[in-house]
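TA notes, week 10

Several of you asked for a full example with nothing omitted. So below is the full record: structure tokens for the whole chain, then the designed sequence directly under it. When grading your own attempts, check the secondary structure regions first.
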């Protein structure tokens, strides 16, 4: 009887540990899936390697150059184009001549699933009209109603920037735990891109582009 009791206790302990393991694996898989769907990138600190979807492969060199899903492209009235990246040159907001600006757009550094010719253009701001054009990406009716119908009146001041959130796993795992899985070696980054303008009254019209292509109204 004593042996049976010992076995029963061991069995209960095994069942409890298996349940915790399965719950942990489910939570890990579910949270990883949601993070990737949001556009969060997950990498390894020991080698800097970042796992990216296969849709990034055609433009992987561009993505590796900047670690940005989107980059801006300014078109001028004289037909010339100013790119954020050109070879080893990286330009910033101050390099844009707003007096000559015709339009500005964000293009993707990954292959976009669309039949449209301009498949890399996510959003374009027509600087002459103050109206947005959503070529690709996912813009809701609310966003389109706000940005594609009635532009703000007045001289425009460009709003253009990107924000990156970078974090890593907190703490460390013991040597024994690392033998099985080492999530403490992971780092995460999440980019967001803002495009729009402000008029002298202080009113703003701007959108925020999330790395998965979701486009929302930007409210500071």
């Amino acid at each position: 009887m004593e042996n049976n009791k010992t076995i029963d206790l061991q069995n209960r302990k095994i069942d409890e540990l298996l349940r915790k393991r399965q719950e942990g694996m489910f939570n890990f898989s579910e949270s990883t899936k949601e993070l990737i769907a949001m556009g969060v990138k997950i990498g390894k600190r020991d080698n800097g390697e970042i796992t990216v979807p296969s849709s990034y492969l055609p433009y992987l060199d561009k993505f590796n150059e900047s670690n940005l899903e989107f980059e801006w492209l300014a078109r001028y009235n004289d037909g010339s184009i100013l790119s954020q990246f050109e070879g080893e040159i990286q330009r910033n907001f101050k390099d844009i001549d707003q007096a000559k600006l015709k339009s500005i757009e964000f293009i993707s550094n990954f292959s976009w699933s669309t039949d449209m010719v301009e498949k890399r253009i996510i959003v374009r701001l027509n600087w002459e009209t103050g109206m947005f054009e959503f070529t690709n990406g996912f813009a809701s009716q609310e966003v389109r109603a706000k940005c594609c119908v009635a532009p703000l009146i007045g001289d425009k001041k460009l709003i253009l920037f990107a924000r990156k959130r970078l974090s890593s796993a907190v703490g460390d795992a013991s040597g024994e735990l690392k033998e099985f899985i080492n999530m403490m070696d992971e780092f995460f980054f999440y980019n967001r891109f803002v495009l729009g303008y402000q008029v002298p009254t202080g009113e703003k019209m701007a959108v925020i582009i999330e790395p998965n292509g979701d486009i929302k109204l930007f409210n500071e």
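The chain has a mean pLDDT of 81. Use that as a sanity check on your answer.
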